[in-house]
Amino acid sequence: MLLRHLSYFIAVAEHRGFTRAAAALHVSQPALSQQIRQLEAMLEVQLFDRSGRYTRLTDAGEIWLEYARRVLRDLEEGRRALHDAEDLQRGKLRIAMTPTFTTYMLGPLVEAYYRRYPGVKLLIQEMNQERMETMLLEDELDVGIAFGESLSRDIVVQPLLTETLALVVSRAHPLAHESHLQLQALDAQPLILLSSEFATREQIKPLLSPPSART
């Protein structure tokens, strides 16, 4: 089995037909059909239902599509790993941050990064941690920076820093002169919190009683 078989199979599945897939791959339709027949012969299963107007995956084809995509992703990841180990002077790094980090970390990070790796393109996206983990697992990101622990055992987590949160009040506020506070002291206080898009809010909410958490 060759990588060409996998690429051709995925193309036919995604384009739902041999004609469109052949055009996208810049090969003739007979050549593409022959490669798919070879793949089906090697696997000893029928991957496509060709009886209707559109070419559809069979049940076996649906299963094989998941594995074929995974193989190509793993090979691409391996190729990038070899490239990165050999030469850190070119290429790209795909990174994502939660909104809070983007606000105060992005500028210094980019400046320091390009001083050290001027030839490596930095691709930065802003997103929540859930989407970030999904993209990491699907090899659509190289690095993610977020607040919480990962929910997946397949993601390696490295602590970068520890943050301290502070309560900010006016000088005239009854709590302004308190050096230490119990969380219960905030129960009756209206609070201004970050929006739900920020991971910090989600970490604070479990510590507060419902009235404060809803403010």
Description of the molecule:
By secondary structure, the protein is mainly alpha-helical. It folds into 3 domains: 80 residues, Arc Repressor Mutant, subunit A (Orthogonal Bundle), CATH 1.10.10.10; 57 residues, Periplasmic binding protein-like II (D-Maltodextrin-Binding Protein, domain 2), CATH 3.40.190; 51 residues, no CATH class. The protein is built from 8 helices and 5 strands. A 3-stranded parallel sheet has the order 4-3-5, with helices on both faces. The protein has a two-stranded antiparallel ribbon with strand order 1-2. A hairpin with a 6-residue loop joins strand 1 and strand 2. The termini are far apart.
Keywords, separated by commas or semicolons:
215 residues, mainly alpha, two-stranded antiparallel ribbon, D-Maltodextrin-Binding Protein, domain 2, three-stranded parallel sheet
- Helix amount: 40-55%
- Number of E strands: 5
CATH architecture of the largest domain: Orthogonal Bundle
- In angstroms, what is the radius of gyration? 26 Å
The CATH superfamily label of the largest domain reads: Winged helix-like DNA-binding domain superfamily/Winged helix DNA-binding domain
Q: Please, what is the average pLDDT?
A: 84
Q: List low-confidence stretches.
A: none
> Would you give the CATH topology of the largest domain?
Arc Repressor Mutant, subunit A
Question: From the helix content, strand content and strand pairing, which structural class follows?
Answer: mainly alpha
Strand order of the largest sheet: 4-3-5
- Tally of helical segments: 8
Strand % is 5-15%
Cα distance spanning the termini: 60 Å
| Largest sheet geometry | 3 strands, parallel
User: In CATH, what is the class of the largest domain?
Assistant: Mainly Alpha
GO molecular function: DNA binding; DNA-binding transcription factor activity
Organism: Klebsiella variicola
Protein name: DNA-binding transcriptional regulator CynR
Family: Belongs to the LysR transcriptional regulatory family.
